[in-house]
Specification:
Blueprint: H1 2-10, H2 18-43, H3 47-56, H4 62-74, H5 78-87, H6 93-105, H7 109-117, H8 124-136, H9 140-149, H10 155-167, H11 171-180, H12 186-199, H13 202-211, H14 217-229, H15 233-242
Helix pairs in contact: 2-3, 2-4, 4-5, 4-6, 5-6, 6-7, 6-8, 7-8, 8-9, 8-10, 9-10, 10-11, 10-12, 11-12, 12-13, 12-14, 13-14, 14-15
Length: 245
């Protein structure tokens, strides 16, 4: 009744059979309950129970299918994730990104790239997933080539590459990349700060932190971690006390 009244505000002449409205509401409620059960099963680590609920569903929507693909990927059952992916009548960027990430996580970069290249309307999240795949598998040069080809980049794109450089001990390359970035947001500064911390570059960390105009909780925490690892607990405590939040 409430939904019908809302619709009638926009069009007073509108009239829907109550039986039809009730049927739609029951279907929505049923889908929500099934999707919630699937999520709960995966969170509890019971993959077989999740699949049983999925198979019993009289009707599935894109949320259901994306959930199955994403959860299978997280549990590294990439073959089953691909089976579900292939049965999807329509796929959105969430589906594609999950599969690209899954293949990359398993080291199957060629399959990840084939899927990536097969998606025409990729957004920045999908691009970042493929870049991350190259970084995780130690193929930094290819990650850089992909970053260079991206039509739209965000702070996360640059941060992923920075983390990759630091992970492989390429500090000079990381500093050069950071200097080239025209716009530096908090996430990019934090990636650089974290890299210095991981490499044990205390002075470089201090200098960068002092240059930051917009420090968030992550920035402060990272700097405190750096001081703690260096054994300077007094300075770490002072910084902790000075944190605005």
């Amino acid at each position: 009744m409430r939904y019908l009244n809302v619709l009638r505000r926009f069009n007073p002449s509108i009239a829907f059979p109550y039986s039809r409205i009730n049927l739609v509401c029951r279907r929505i409620s049923s889908l929500y309950q099934f999707n919630s059960r699937i999520t709960s099963c995966f969170r509890g680590g019971d993959i077989e129970a999740a699949r049983k609920v999925f198979d019993e569903m009289p009707q599935k929507n894109r949320v259901t299918l994306n959930c199955m693909v994403s959860r299978y990927v997280r549990n590294e059952t990439i073959r089953v994730a691909r089976e579900v992916f292939d049965t999807m009548p329509s796929r959105n960027v969430v589906s594609w990104t999950a599969m690209v990430s899954g293949y990359a996580k398993c080291g199957r970069l060629e399959e990840a790239r084939n899927l990536f290249d097969g998606k025409d309307d990729k957004n920045v999240v999908c691009w970042n997933a493929m870049v991350t795949g190259y970084i995780v598998n130690g193929r930094v040069d290819e990650a850089w080539e992909l970053i260079d080809a991206m039509p739209v980049k965000n702070d996360v794109s640059w941060a992923i590459l920075l983390e990759g450089y630091f992970h492989h001990g390429m500090v000079d390359e990381a500093e050069e990349l950071f200097d080239q970035a025209l716009v530096k947001g908090a996430s990019l500064y934090n990636a650089m700060l974290s890299g210095y911390v991981d490499m044990g570059c205390l002075e470089a960390s201090r200098e960068l932190f002092l240059r930051m105009c917009d420090c968030d909780v992550g920035s402060w925490t990272t700097m405190i971690t750096c001081l703690s690892r260096a054994g300077d607990m007094e300075s770490a405590r002072v910084l902790f006390e000075d944190m605005p939040k």
